Amino acid sequence: MQDLIANFRLQDAVDIGVIAFFVYQTMDLIRGTRAARMLVGLGVVFLVFLSSQFFDLYTVNWVLDNLLSSIFIVVVVIFQNDIRRALTQVGTGSFFGREVVLQSSDVEEVVRATVTMATKRIGGLIVFEREVGLSEYVESGTRIDAAISRELIRSIFHTSSPIHDGAIIIAVGRIAAAGCFLPLTTNPNVSKALGTRHRAAIGVTEDTDAIVVVVSEEDGRISLIRDGRLTRDLDAANLREKLEGLLV
Q: Which of 52, 147, 206, 244 could form a disulfide with 61 if both were Cys (CB 3.0 to 4.6 A apart)?
């Protein structure tokens, strides 16, 4: 034991620490996503491969041996969206921490507009840009570049507005654009009961680090989506707390 301690170098501690950090960040990134379930499936395949060697199952072993020899390509193909999102977050620095995006007064305006819309069963889709830019989605809508206000948000999503079906994108503390089109999620595990707004919200958060608030026009429920994960049935206090924790 003493020899082991004596041979332990500072470089070894750094080496272990770096690997542990990236393993933790990777697990946190894929937690609750379809990537996590796929990793479990790959783990089962690997266990079957080891079992085929132990029990001399030659045909099974040959098939899995050929499959696992191309495992790098398989992983890249299966997890291409998750890999792209992870590399984007590392490149923007969000992998290590996020910057202040909004003021508390801006969050309050959004919360009050959202609650009013929910009460009146007016559907809404509000996207908050963080580290990863959303310029490609801003360009798909109508540029506004206005201060955040509850009146403006409610008027945009009013059914008489020509841009009420799209999303509002809030960036750098201002409403950048409205009527924006977002990519729908392709995750087969998403509930079929969710409508287009919720699917679009999940889709954009799967590709970016954006935060999205959705108001359902069917039942007036308020939802918050982050990293493809949906939190439903929020009231004003819950929504305010979550937005301030994530954006302020």
A: 52
Neighbours of 174 (CB within 10 A): 15
How far is residue 26's CA from residue 58's CA, in Å, rounded to a whole number? 35
Residue 91 has a pLDDT of 53
| CA proximity to 202, closest of 171, 230, 178 | 230
Domain ranges of the chain: 2-78, 104-247
What's the half-sphere exposure (Cβ side, CA atoms, 13 Å) at 5?
2
Contact yes or no for 176/170 (Cβ under 8 A): yes
pLDDT in tens, 109-122: 999 999 999 999 99
Would you say 214 and 222 are in contact if contact means Cβ atoms under 8 Å apart? Answer: yes
Separation of alpha carbons 216 and 110, rounded Å: 15
Contact 211, 125 (CB under 8 A): no
